[in-house]
């Protein structure tokens, strides 16, 4: 792929990053902003979006530093439910663009209809922030609909991760396709290496390319490939764009849609 390219999903952390003690940790590995920028320079990636993770808690200083140093970056954040409007205003000016709900690992999830969650979601909507969502197939349709009702845009992670026996025939995947049609949901062409069934990943990618490739699909690497650091490479992550055979559509997925979504004010 020739530039521009936008990586809409990568992580950064180093040994100084305070992590929640009861959550997963990167086992001493580091993923520094300087390291991902080497990948960017090597493969012609011009813009990037740092994805937060639950392990950071509400610590966003590492992201804040990266955003201040590199204007071609944006980031999502974890936000407390009582985050005031002035905090959203400040973080928006710094380059933060959304929150992440990493709910796939959770057996029980918070009630998005509660007063506290509704306040947070409406503040996201008021400031143009999106919700970056990872959830289980049996819940994702309901979660998306509740988020839509709050007025936020949604970006679904890793092609929906409907890695079930039914694959793209799973009700959860059909709900994602329906949400795309309703106009407030985008999906990331990312994370294929995380599927237990490679066939499910390929089928999901092809279905999403057909349904969303012209305006609702964006590419992300998921660097540094946590859990697959020894086997996955950035080149392999970029190869998922080869599933898109139309060159104009590939350009939209690789860059144009993401530039409009994350960098429209640049």
From TrEMBL:
The record places domain Amidohydrolase-related at: 6-263
Note the SUPFAM superfamilies from the entry: Metallo-dependent hydrolases
Gene3D superfamilies hit by this protein: Metal-dependent hydrolases
MF GO annotations? hydrolase activity
Domain of life where this protein originates? Bacteria
Q: Name one Pfam family in it.
A: Amidohydro_2
Q: What is this protein called?
A: Amidohydrolase family protein
